[in-house]
Amino acid sequence: MCKDRTRNDIETRFRNCDEELHEYYGETFNTETQQRLGSFVAQAFRQRFTKK
Known about the structure:
By secondary structure, the chain is mainly alpha-helical. Helix content is about 75%, strand content about 0%. The longest helix has 19 residues, at about 5-25. The radius of gyration is 13 Å and the shape is flat. The model has no long low-confidence stretch (mean pLDDT about 65).
């Protein structure tokens, strides 16, 4: 499904999704939540795409 995606591509898609959520809810997440979510997603991708 998800072949060779660069980290940049993944981050861009995540940002686009984030912007869609802002539009949908009509407000921005507070910074703390966004940072937590961002680091969680980054960690998840790192674990998934790092060859062991």
